[in-house]
Amino acid sequence: MDSNARHVLRRAFVDSLPVLMGYTTMGFVAGVLLAAKGDVVLAPLWAFLSSSLWITGTMSFAFVPEVAVRAPVATIVLMTVAVNFRYAFYGFSMLERWKDVPLLRKAYLVLMLTDENYALEEASAKSMDRETHLKYCTWISALNHSYWVAGVTVGALVVCLLGMAVDPDVIRAHTNGMEFAMVALFLVIFTDQVRGAVRPT
């Protein structure tokens, strides 16, 4: 890896640190809920596979009750499309910027366009040339994706390990209300945005 590539990776990692804090925390909660209430065998494997396929927190939380009642695959697919539909608009705005990028890489970059990724990529666009920015976007996507996968998988693993020593019903009882974590995160972000908008300059 040359010095420029190392510089891009370093900047991407530093810029992604706030996302690391949020994704690992929220991912952990999603993994705990999946293992405690999803009623699946090999919950850590399910957590790893599901979080690898989508990065949206909303879907990871919505996935748990659907798995618990053994909803049809078609229902889960339809719900995934509905929940993630808004991300398509992020992708449309990036198609011109990434028009010469190989298809698989472009598909990954578009699929990883969460609110956080999009904000970081847009904020850095004017300070980098096109090739450097493409590397930056790729690293941001990969890093943030790995944070989410790690958080969800570890959360499910912790519940499975606790289940060896604690009654699963007790664990389920103590996870009641954790679904509110996602709502609480949105409320905190919204409140911060409102405070920033009305703060005197």
Poorly predicted ranges: none
- Radius of gyration based on Cα positions: 19 Å
Share of helical residues:
over 70%
User: Ends: how far apart?
Assistant: 44 Å
Look at the structure and give the mean pLDDT.
80
Q: How much β-strand is present in the residues?
A: under 5%
* Domains, number: 1
Q: What general outline do the C-alpha atoms trace?
A: elongated
SSE pattern = HHHHHHHHHH
Q: Write down how many β-strands occur, each being a DSSP E stretch of 2 or more residues.
A: 0
The protein's oligomeric status is single chain
User: In terms of structural class, how would the helical and strand content be classed?
Assistant: mainly alpha
Major pleated sheet: none
Secondary structure tally, helices: 10
Write the layout of secondary structure elements.
Elements: H1 3-37, H2 43-53, H3 57-68, H4 73-84, H5 87-94, H6 103-111, H7 115-124, H8 130-162, H9 168-174, H10 180-198
What does this structure look like?
By secondary structure, this protein is mainly alpha-helical. The protein has one domain (3-198). It is built from ten helices and no strands. It has helices at residues 3-37, 43-53, 57-68, 73-84, 87-94, 103-111, 115-124, 130-162, 168-174, 180-198. Helix 1 (3-37) runs parallel beside helix 8 (130-162) and helix 3 (57-68) packs antiparallel against helix 4. The protein is elongated and about 55 Å long.
